[in-house]
UniProtKB/TrEMBL annotation:
PROSITE patterns attached to this UniProt entry: ABC_TRANSPORTER_1, ABC_TRANSPORTER_2
InterPro entries in the cross-refs: AAA+_ATPase (IPR003593), ABC_transporter-like_ATP-bd (IPR003439), ABC_transporter-like_CS (IPR017871), P-loop_NTPase (IPR027417)
Keyword presence, ATP-binding: yes
Domain ABC transporter: 2-237
Protein name in UniProt: Hemin ABC transporter ATP-binding protein
Superkingdom as given in the UniProt entry: Bacteria
An annotated Gene Ontology molecular function: ATP hydrolysis activity
Keyword Translocase: yes
SMART domains: AAA (SM00382)
Amino acid sequence: MIRVEGLGVTLGGSEILTGVDLTVSAGEWVTVIGPNGAGKSTLLRAVGGRLAHRGSISLNGTHVSALSRRELARTVAVVAQTPVVPPGMTVIDYVLLGRTPHISPLGRESARDLAVVDGVLDRLDLAPFVGRLLATLSGGERQRVFLARALAQEAPVLLLDEPTSALDIGHQQDVLDLVDDLRRDRDLTVLATMHDLSVAGEYADRLVLVAGGRVVATGPPAEVLTEELLTTQYRARVKVLKGAHGPIVVPVRS
Ligand SMILES: Nc1ncnc2c1ncn2[C@@H]1O[C@H](COP(=O)(O)OP(=O)(O)OP(=O)(O)O)[C@@H](O)[C@H]1O
């Protein structure tokens, strides 16, 4: 569903990504991990068709740059790390924007569009907030609204850049379980970034460890979340314990 070959990205005169190869199959969940500044968000932005790049990126067999804006929006939904919020926008209007690729240019939203939005708002505990201005929500409420807009888009590929960084542990589990259900029910393909390594390993089929703009390891969580790799790449002191659903990474005080 996602095929990246020899990806290179230069920003502000610096080479940010070099020779990145990555494939994600339909229905698969791959999470990109790596230290601050490694190039994770840049990789997601490139896959989302938002960046000039070298090499090739295709979605479902079509090169991203060959897709029109509308085709791209029907194929891939993005939750950016810090989305731009139009001023004065209410929650319902913002989430309805996710239906834009499904509405004809001069048309209005259909009963199905409204039903999809209602369903997503309900699943994300957002029904009480529909009339509120986005600017008045807490960080965690706002993050769920960003996800709601992306899910309302009903695209087969979902790109999530640190989607749960502002969420309490209960909402974090709700959100990740919801995404997991959707990929099982609808073959949704998920490419995410995450800093919580234990959670990353619990939900992803595979992890891709990026450092210095290159892929340094890829594989099932148990192969990537090793003390040796994490110590080297993050310069962190960690213990990796065996959990019921994968490795548990515990920071250790010096
Ligand atoms: N427009 C730009 N000009 C120059 N450098 C940039 C630009 N945009 C991003 N960078 C640099 O590219 C590198 C990778 O950034 P990116 O946001 O992809 O990292 P990241 O792995 O997502 O980091 P984090 O974990 O901190 O979110 C960083 O060093 C960043 O400063």
